[in-house]
Amino acid sequence: MKSDHDEFRPQPVHIRIGHEDIDVRSLNCAIELIRSLRHDRLGNYAEMLLAQMEAARLPQQQAEAWTAFRTWSIACGLAGQHIREAA
C-alpha cells in the first residue's frame, strides 16, 4: 500500500498533436500542455482536468491526476498506440 509520502513517478505519455510528437514526462509538463491548448477546441474540454492537475499536491492526488490526463489524451486521440494498448 502506498503512503502519502511515496514520491509520484509517472510513466511518460507520448502525445501527437498535428505532426508534432511530444513526450509528456511530468505532471507539470502535462499542465503546460493543457494550458497551451486553452484557445484550441481540445482545451475547451480540459478545464476541469486542468483544475484537478493544478490542485494535486499529495502523491496519490498526483497519480489520480496523471491517470485522468492519460485518459483524456486517449479519449481525444492524442496518445500513441502503445498507450492505448497499455490502458
Q: How would you describe this protein?
A:
It is a single chain. This protein has one domain. It is built from 5 helices and 2 strands; from the N terminus they run ββααααα. Helix 1 packs antiparallel against helix 3 and helix 3 packs antiparallel against helix 4. The longest helix is centred in the C-terminal third of the chain and has 17 residues. A two-stranded antiparallel ribbon has the order 1-2. By secondary structure, the chain is mainly alpha-helical. The C terminus is likely disordered. A hairpin with a 2-residue loop joins strand 1 and strand 2. The chain is globular. It starts with 12 loop residues before the first strand and ends with a helix.
